[in-house]
């Protein structure tokens, strides 16, 4: 059975560790730091065989060099020639087998132009989405366009509702506070905020989420609802779903 464990890193990153219970070999996703990974591996007597990278930002890649020197893992990542250390460069529709599971590569530009995500159907389905989809939020548009990010999120929204969503940051409380303004009539948002405040008070992760949960609480996946449209209309154009999304994302930048 495949298990997924969060390794906290930097101020609010999660490096996700994948492990089959029949093996000591593991995979990590987006190692922004090497030391937390090394400490975890040594404590649990594990061996790093694979690294998945979603995009080029340093808080997702700065641990690569040290981990490569120490463990010589297989490194899979986006087809960005400026990103050093990638052994297998993959793009939309490619498939990679990791920890006994077949993962589909989904191109998800928006946060960055090279951003990719990894989805495996299986039981349960798993999505490693880097900085594209967060619990109750989405990534800031540093390089891509609202259209690109909206398209990526629409692709995610069509995944099975039971899909576990492994985002790369603990941004949930801030996102839910924004969702409370962007979707003010949503009782699911209010309930999620209460539950996540309790979790963080106990220093517990609010992740993973699920696609089903995000469809209920994430305003960026709810741009066609009356509550979100009404709130967004006070901030900018809402001519269609894309315009509503762009207005929400810009509003969040100022929130």
What does this structure look like?
Helix content is 35%, strand content 26%. The protein is α/β, with parallel strands linked by helices. The strands form three sheets. Strands 1-2-3-4-5-6 form a six-stranded mixed beta sheet, with helices on one face. A hairpin with a 4-residue loop joins strand 2 and strand 3 (25-29). Helix 5 packs antiparallel against helix 6.
Helix tally?
A: 9
Query: What is the percentage of strand-forming residues?
Result: 25-35%
Identify the quaternary structure here: single chain
Overall 3D shape:
globular
What is the radius of gyration?
18 Å
Please give the alpha-carbon distance between the first and last residues.
41 Å
Uncertain spans, ≥5 residues at pLDDT below 50? none
Query: Largest sheet, order of strands side by side?
Result: 1-2-3-4-5-6
Mean pLDDT: 97
DSSP strand count:
14
**Main β-sheet: number of strands, strand sense, barrel status?**
6 strands, mixed
Reading the helices and strands in chain order gives EEEHEHHEEEEEEEEHEHHEHHH
Structural class: alpha/beta
Helix content: 25-40%
At a glance:
The protein is of the alpha/beta class. The protein has 9 helices and 14 strands.
What's the layout of helices and strands?
Blueprint: E1 2-9, E2 13-20, E3 25-29, H1 35-44, E4 47-52, H2 58-61, H3 64-71, E5 74-78, E6 88-90, E7 95-98, E8 101-107, E9 116-120, E10 126-130, E11 133-134, E12 137-138, H4 146-157, E13 164-167, H5 172-182, H6 187-201, E14 209-210, H7 211-217, H8 226-233, H9 241-254
Helix pairs in contact: 5-6, 8-9
């Amino acid at each position: 059975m495949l298990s997924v464990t969060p390794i906290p890193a930097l101020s609010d990153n999660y490096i996700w560790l994948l492990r089959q219970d029949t093996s000591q070999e593991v995979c990590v996703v987006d190692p922004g730091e090497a030391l937390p990974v090394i400490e975890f591996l040594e404590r649990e007597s594990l061996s790093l065989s694979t690294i998945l990278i979603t995009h080029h930002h340093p808080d997702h890649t700065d641990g690569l060099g040290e981990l490569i020197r120490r463990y010589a893992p297989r490194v899979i990542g986006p087809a960005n020639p400026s990103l050093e250390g990638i052994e297998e460069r993959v793009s939309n529709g490619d498939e990679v087998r990791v920890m006994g599971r077949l993962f589909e590569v989904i191109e998800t530009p928006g946060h960055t132009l090279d951003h990719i995500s990894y989805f495996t159907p299986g039981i349960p389905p798993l999505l490693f989405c880097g900085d594209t989809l967060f619990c109750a939020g989405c990534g800031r548009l540093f390089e891509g366009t609202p259209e690109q990010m909206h398209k990526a999120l629409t692709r995610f929204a069509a995944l099975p509702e039971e899909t576990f969503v492994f985002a790369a940051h603990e941004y949930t409380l801030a996102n839910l506070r924004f969702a409370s303004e962007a979707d003010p009539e949503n009782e699911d948002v209010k309930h999620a905020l209460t539950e996540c405040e309790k979790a963080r008070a106990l220093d517990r992760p609010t992740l993973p989420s699920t696609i089903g949960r995000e469809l209920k609480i994430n305003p960026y996946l709810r741009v066609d609802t009356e509550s979100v449209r009404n709130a967004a209309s006070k901030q900018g154009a809402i001519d269609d779903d894309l315009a509503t999304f762009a207005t929400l994302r810009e509003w969040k930048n100022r929130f």
